[in-house]
Specification:
Order of helices and strands of chain A: HHHHHHHHHHH
Oligomer: homodimer
Structural class of chain A: mainly alpha
Number of helices of chain A: 11
Helix content of chain A: over 70%
Largest interface: A-B, 59 and 59 residues
Strand content of chain A: under 5%
Chain lengths: ~220, ~220
DNA sequence: ACCTGAACACCGTTCAAGT
DNA sequence: ACCTGAACACCGTTCAAGT
């Protein structure tokens, strides 16, 4: 016999944390970080702005939940059967690609790194480092180095994307950074001067991968 | 004969970008990131909030200038005559210590990394990597790895400090993070479970230094 | 139990008006 | 040239009142 509707059963149009998260992601993807307000969210969900607080503690809670959602999904695609070194690269690149697709994830994960999204990344990388044979005493620091690097790049990428949005193109943004970094006091910044062309033309994903390889080589060397 | 007062000469109580930056740093150090508003700044400078805009483009500009000021000062102490490897550690630790003393610098540098503060760090580390003998084709990626790691740790440290402020102690904050990271679904996070004690008791500065050593070892190995 | 929406206590930024 | 401070257009969050 069919179960009686439980108390927790809801009309399909009832509010829920899941629906709020989905709407928030939608706004962030479509209109950017500045467009996510409780008023905009309420309008999109055709409800009152106060209603959202019944399901979500505050804006930080909402952003943590949306970020965790995206990171969890990104890590789902990462392989389990690959060699540890390849698995580490795959996990790191999966996170990188998720942030590339949604720069607001980078903003959030670097603004509030002590959240569940980081826990997932930490766990995924740590397990593979173990499988790689890194001795136990070096596992915590090695994983932290990898996670720290990843967070740093996330911050750079997210900030870059915000500036690209203003300058309309990635080339324009980098040309602008290089111009600002080389115009005043060029004598004080010979190294920046020297790598200016590379900075202007580099591929973010390739550079990210190169950094991961450096850290993996360092972990192997230190062990 | 004494020079005539030039047009640019000012009464000592006149506003200037320098005075605004000093007041902003004062507020940030004393009352935290949330306390820096144009109204608070105007009160401390006994002026109108609109007056600040004559010297500073907007809040982002102000924060970039304060951060650059702190980073510049931090790098002043870094040695020039040390061996390249030691100089790199010294530069990195100087930035780390500056962020330790002023977590708001970490927030700002990870939120807006494409600013002058990062340029100084990039230049300092790049020069030493050159002196270390890293081949030219590897210099850009190597420096970026180091800078990326440093920004990531800056973000972690700043976020940690914000949470410490809420929890009143660093031990309390880390205990809280560990509790949140291990309580639900412990089976899905065996690695986090395993390093929980280390996470709770680790020394940030030592871990940061360990990460720098890993990256330096990696740079040496890859070359 | 859950939702409404006005109200509160803020923000950054602008700008006419002053000196 | 530089400063004043009210005004504008927002925010996140709260909460009495509804269903």
């Amino acid at each position: 016999m069919p179960a009686k509707p439980r108390r927790t059963e809801r009309r399909s149009d009832a509010l829920s944390k899941e629906r709020i998260i989905a709407a928030a992601i939608n706004i962030l993807d479509t209109d950017g970080e500045g467009a996510l307000t409780f008023r905009a969210l309420a309008t999109r969900l055709t409800t009152g702005s106060g209603a959202i607080y019944w399901h979500v503690a505050n804006k930080d809670d909402l952003l943590a939940a949306t970020t965790d959602h995206v990171i969890a999904k990104a890590l789902t695609g990462a392989p389990v059967d690959a060699a540890p070194g390849d698995a580490i690269r795959a996990i790191a690149l999966a996170v990188f690609d998720a942030i590339h697709a949604r720069p607001w994830v980078g903003t959030q994960i670097s603004r509030e790194p002590w959240q569940s999204g980081t826990r997932r990344i930490f766990e995924g990388l740590g397990q593979q480092l173990q499988a790689l044979g890194v001795p136990e005493r070096a596992q915590f620091n090695s994983t932290s180095a990898l996670v720290g690097y990843l967070l740093g790049l996330a911050a750079q990428y997210a900030a870059g994307a915000r500036l690209v949005a203003q300058k309309t193109s990635r080339a324009g943004f980098l040309t602008d950074v290089v111009a600002r970094w080389t115009q005043d006091e060029p004598d004080r910044y010979p190294f920046v001067q020297q790598i200016a062309d590379e900075l202007r033309e580099h591929d973010d994903r390739e550079q990210f991968r190169a950094g991961i390889d450096i850290i993996l080589a360092g972990i192997a060397a230190i062990r």
